[in-house]
Amino acid sequence: MRYLPTGNWMQKADAHTIHEIGIPSLVLMERAALGIAEVIKSKVLKNKKILIVCGSGNNGGDGFAIARLLHDENYSVGIAFVGKTESMSDECKQQYCICKNIGISIETEIPDEEYGVIVDAIFGVGLCREISGKYASVIECLNAMKGYKVAVDIPSGVSSLDGKILGIAFKADLTVSVQCEKLGTVLYPGKDFAGEVVVKSIGINTELYQNNIEICYTLEQDDLYTCLPKRVANSHKGTYGKVLMITGSKGMAGAAYLSAKAAYVSGAGLVQIYTAKENRSILQQLLPEAIISTYTEYSEEELKQLLNWADVVCIGCGLGQEKTADKLLQGVFQFCKVPCIIDADGINLLSEKMELLEKSTFPIALTPHMKEMTRLLKCSVAKLNADRMNILTDFVKRYPVVCALKDARTLVAKENHPLFVNTAGNSAMAKAGSGDVLAGVITGLTAQHMNLYDSVVSGVYLHANGGDYAKKSCGVYSVLAEDLISGIKDVLKQVEQ
C-alpha cells in the first residue's frame, strides 16, 4: 500500500517533521534537491543545457538547490527566477543567494535560447488558485519550448487535490515527486501532465497518514499476496464459498458467462447462474463447471431457495430492465441475508428505487460506471466529473454500501474508510464485458469470506492488473473481456510464486 496525499496533507507531514521531529527545513530541501538531481542525471546526457525555472516558494528553493548541485558536477545550468523577490520564502532566498555567490547566471525572464532540459520549480503542492498573468505566460512559453521537461514534485498548475488544471499547467515528461506521489498526479487530467512519476524519499515522517481515513491510498503488485484470501490444503469446494449469479436476460448469456467464469477464476468454490431459460444451453456449453438454474417468470419461492443456498449474491450483469428483472432485484432486497454485489442493470433498476438501499439489512457493494452513477445520484455527468471524490464520499455516508465508481481511475469508497484509488489498468480494458468480469471477481473474492470492502478494493486492483497482463499479450486494441480473465489467471499465478 502507498499513500496518495494532497498538498495540504503533505505540508502537514512536512511541518510535523520539521517542528516535532526536529529535522530543519533546509536539510529536507537539500535531500529533495539531491534526490531530484540524481534522477535528472540518470535521464539526461551531460552535454545538454539545462534551464531551471524557479518561483518564490520552497518549490523554487528546491530548484535553486538542484541548479547548484548540477552546476557543481559541471552541467551547463541556467536559472530563470520568475517569482517575486519580496515574496521569497526564507529557504528560497538562502538557496538563491548561494547560487548567486557561486556564479550561476540568474535571469528574470525566460532566455531566448534552446535547452535540452527544462525544469519546472515554479509552484509546489500548495497551489490552489488559477494561474494567470505573467505566470500563465511563463508556463505557456515553457510548454512551447523544445527539450525534456521535468517537474519538481508536481507540475505547476496541476491541483494536488484532484488533478484539475488550474487554468494552465506545465506539461512534463517526468515528475520527481518528493516522499510521496501526490493525488493530483494520479488522477486525470493531472496524470497526463505529470508524465513518468519517480518518487524520492527524503525522510519526511508520514506516520500521521496511518489509519487516517482522509488520506487516499493505492495498492502495488506486491500487496496482492497479502490482500488475497489464502488456500488451505485441507479444503473442499464448500470452503471457498457458494456464489449465486443472477445474470443474463434473453440473449445476454455472455454477461452471465463472463461474470460467472471470473468468479470461478478468482477462487470461488461453486457458482450457480440464475438466468433466463433461453440461455441454458449456451451456458452449459461455455461453462460446464457452473450450476445452471433458469426462470421464465418471477418465482418468489424459487428465489428464496437460491438466496438461502448462497454465501454471496451478484445481480445485474446483462439482467435487463424488464418486469421480471425488477421483481428479482426487489426479491433480493426482501430476502437476501448475505453480501450482495449489484452491477449494471441491477444499478439501473435500483436508481428508481433508492429507498431499497436506505432500508437494506445485508452488506451491499455497488459497481457503477460514471453514467450509471449519475442515475443513482440524479445528476449530470459534468457535475459528477467536477467533484466526484466528494460526491462519492457523500453518497456512501448517505447509503450503507461499498461503492466502486468505475473510470480510468476507479475509486472505492465506504463510510469511515479511506478512499482507494486504483492506479493499475489501461485503455485496452474499455470494452464490453469488462464490468461483468469485475463484478465476478469481486463476487468470487467475497465468497472466500473476505470483508466486502476489502474484496471490492482487491477485486478492482486484481481486475486492473489482469488488464495490464492482457494488454501485454494482445496489444492495446485487441483485448476482449475474456482476455481479462486470462490476464487475471496470469496475475494470480504470479502471486503464488
What secondary-structure arrangement, pairings included, does this model have?
Elements: E1 2-4, H1 7-21, H2 25-43, E2 50-54, H3 58-72, E3 77-81, H4 90-101, E4 106-107, E5 117-121, H5 133-144, E6 148-152, E7 174-178, H6 190-194, E8 196-200, E9 216-218, H7 223-227, E10 242-246, H8 253-265, E11 270-276, H9 280-286, E12 291-295, H10 300-309, E13 312-315, H11 323-335, E14 340-342, H12 345-350, H13 355-359, E15 364-366, H14 370-377, H15 381-386, H16 388-398, E16 402-405, E17 411-413, E18 420-421, H17 434-447, H18 452-474, H19 481-496
Parallel strand pairs: 2-3, 2-5, 3-4, 5-6, 6-7, 7-8, 10-11, 10-13, 11-12, 13-14, 14-15, 15-16
Antiparallel strand pairs: 1-9, 16-17, 17-18
Helix pairs in contact: 2-3, 3-4, 8-9, 8-17, 8-19, 10-11, 17-18, 18-19
Task: Explain this structure.
The chain has 497 residues and is α/β, with parallel strands linked by helices. It folds into 2 domains: 2-211, YjeF N-terminal domain (Rossmann fold, 3-Layer(aba) Sandwich); 223-496, 3-Layer(aba) Sandwich (UDP-N-acetylmuramoyl-L-alanine:D-glutamate ligase). It has 19 helices and 18 strands. The chain has helices at 7-21, 25-43, 58-72, 90-101, 133-144, 190-194, 223-227, 253-265, 280-286, 300-309, 323-335, 345-350, 355-359, 370-377, 381-386, 388-398, 434-447, 452-474, 481-496, and strands at residues 2-4, 50-54, 77-81, 106-107, 117-121, 148-152, 174-178, 196-200, 216-218, 242-246, 270-276, 291-295, 312-315, 340-342, 364-366, 402-405, 411-413, 420-421. Strand 17 (411-413) and strand 18 (420-421) form a beta hairpin. The chain is elongated and about 85 Å long.
